[in-house]
Amino acid sequence: MSAAAVTASSARAAEQRISSADTQLGRWMLAPAIIYITLLVGFPFLLSMYYSVSDATVGNTTLHFVGLENFRRIIENNTFWTSMRNTFVFTIVSQVLVVILAKILAMALFNDFRGKWIVRLLILLPWVAPISLGTIGWLWIFDPVYSVINWTLRASGLVGPNVWPIWLGQPTLAMISIIMVDVWRLLPLATVIILAGLAGIPQDIHDAAHMDGAGFWRHLFRINIPLVMPVMLVALLFGIVFTFTDMIIVYVLTRGGPFDSTQVLASLAFFTGVPGGDLAEGAAISLFLFPLLVAVVIVLLTIARRTEVT
User: Fold this and answer.
1) Does residue 58 lie within any of the structural domains?
2) Does 68 reside within a domain?
3) Residue 184: inside a domain, yes or no?
């Protein structure tokens, strides 16, 4: 065997060792995240499945298998179907608004202007602040007596002297209120994601469109939105997952009221299982979120992949 062949063989062996070492290193680096997700998500999910087919209650030390009895009671409960409808209304309306407003904000922040970093900081504040504290602030904003929104509307003449909206006490206004808070909370995240997508568009494409005489709207719908669509779908996916499984906003603002008009599946599962003491039924309600989220994730990722390919 020639010296060149020996050298080539040694080089291939060294590359294989390096590749194997990189693979092992990657597995070790992923291990903490996998363990964390398993303990944080996997164990509670399995425990919920176990509770959902039992008669578990708060303070009960003995559990008995009841099969699908909890699911049967849930399906026959009108509050469950009201919560299901509210969940879809809450999620769809808020996320449509989030994506539209985030796209507008991202396009505005993509341009250079004085004080740009301050504007970005202010936009990111709702996301970095604890959602419970932020929602308490909104609770004061929606206060039936001292609501700054009502005083502003009256001072600007948009409402009459005898009109005073009770934001958290009327069903329609209560739903609008929790949607507003959810949009305020998730808008920064979607803006940052879409802003990263805008930064990934090559400048040559913008220059070519400008040379071809493309106006603002043609550039927006022919170049900007199509190229950023996969990123927008990712932002939409994150927003749907966060909104669909969130109960903090509802818990702090309305407790699901008035008359269950803002009750969602996550809050219904909590109120049934913890304050209500029926852990089994609460766990069964929470499991309805899983297949719905799986379906949404599959659909959005499929659309995003096809959009990216085309």
Assistant:
1) no
2) no
3) yes
Q: Which amino acid is at 84?
A: M
Domain of residue 215: give its range: 77-309
> Are 168 and 275 in the same domain?
yes
Kindly report the pTM of this predicted structure: 0.84
Question: Residues 131, 177: one domain?
Answer: yes
Paired with 241 in beta bridges are none
Per-residue pLDDT, 56: 87
pLDDT tens, position by position, 260-300: 999 999 999 999 988 888 899 999 998 988 888 888 888 88
In the prediction, which pLDDT does 9 show?
A: 61
Residues 192 and 137 occupy one common structural domain: yes
Task: For the chain, give the mean pLDDT.
Answer: 84
SS (H, E, C) the chain: CCHHHHHHHHHHHHHHHHHHHHHHHHHHHHHHHHHHHHHHHHHHHHHHHHHHCECCCCCCCCCCECCCHHHHHHHCCHHHHHHHHHHHHHHHHHHHHHHHHHHHHHHHHHCCCCCHHHHHHHHHHHHHCCHHHHHHHHHHHCCCCCCHHHHHHHHCCCCCCCCCCCCCCCHHHHHHHHHHHHHHHHHHHHHHHHHHHHHCCCHHHHHHHHHCCCCHHHHHHHHHHHHHHHHHHHHHHHHHHHHHCCCHHHHHHCCCCCCCCCCCHHHHHHHHHCCCCCHHHHHHHHHCHHHHHHHHHHHHHHHHHHHHHC
Overall number of domains in the chain:
2
